[in-house]
Specification:
By secondary structure, the chain is an alpha+beta fold. The chain folds into two domains: 97 residues, Aminopeptidase, CATH 3.40.630.30; 224 residues, Aminopeptidase (3-Layer(aba) Sandwich), CATH 3.40.630. 21% of the residues lie in helices and 26% in strands. The protein is built from eight helices and 16 strands. Strands 1, 2, 3, 4, 5, 8 and 14 form a seven-stranded mixed beta sheet that branches. A seven-stranded mixed beta sheet has the order 7-9-10-11-12-6-13. The protein has a two-stranded antiparallel sheet with strand order 15-16. Strand 15 and strand 16 form a beta hairpin. Helix 7 crosses helix 8. The radius of gyration is 20 Å and the shape is globular. The two termini are 30 Å apart. The relative contact order is 0.17.
Length: 364
Amino acid sequence: MVQWETMRSFLKECYRDDHVLSDKKFFEWQFQAEENDGMANVVCAWDKDELLGMHGYVPWPVRWGNRIFKAAWTLHWLVRPDAPKGLGWLLMKKIQDRYELLMSINASKIGKPFVQGLGWVSYAPIPRFVGVLNKTKAAQMLMPEITANALDHFIIRTHLIGPHRNIVKNKVQSETYRPDWSLYPALSYGTVRSEKYFHWRYRAHPMFKYDIITLGNPERPAVCVFRIEKACGSYETYVGRIVDFFYPNDSVGKEQGLRLLKHVLHEMNESGCTYVDFICSSREYGQAMIDLGGQEEPTHRQVLPSRLAPIQNITYYQNIVFRAPPAERIPKIEEMYITKSDIDGDSPASIGMDTKVIVDNAVL
């Protein structure tokens, strides 16, 4: 990628030396440089040879009701403090002029009111569903002012979980994965979870290893994508992160989804995970965790940390902001399918972090 050293210096100045975007391989994956002849999806502002600002975006098909739009997920909107006033707005406008539908997650306290002023909709927080597999260990990780008794509402009933023999693992390809999306109305507002998307978001990820588990016929699979993260800092353990979980929205699909989740939770339990979380705007899919003993975390009181490398005892919830296409309806948050995996929600904290995971009881 041309002018990489200038970009890396800019990123280190705006963020910090070890920020994950300053890793060239990660930067090129995040902004799809390989798919664009080495050109990253980043709008930049220059003053001669000086980089003044940047705004990244990732084009991707998004289902919006009965239509599919080529949308842009925006991320990493950065401007030097001494840049001309209004430069940030101009960078955003460049992207807005190209796409009818724009979306972003984790808008900052500064960025959120700005995009709301441009007509964007903001929803927060996105629900987080938590299931505790080991109460003793989880009690060592409680958020401030939370007592161990609070965990009783989140205990996974391990007698209900177990392996399933018909699971298909890491084989999302046309012969095994071709969903009839009409069976998934709960996915009517969100990124199209296509085979191509799964390849880019999960298989090609330069730092994390994900498992993609499916159950059912290729036309109507239940799907779960997860990784196991090593928490470090004040306490060391493993935490399961479910980043995608969906199934056909009928009685058969719901039963398949529950069986699939039982299998995934069994794998996590066998791998020594202390707890598991699933951030998802759709309570339709979060309910499966609740059915097995987990619970939706209260929005006013976070029980277990969500930032784990290192563990940070600060309340943090994911948000979603978007600008809907003209004349299209604005869905409620529960009608959308937004998860931790959308674009950069599930991302390494820094370069050099311990990204080892446990898979099948082996440390990789």
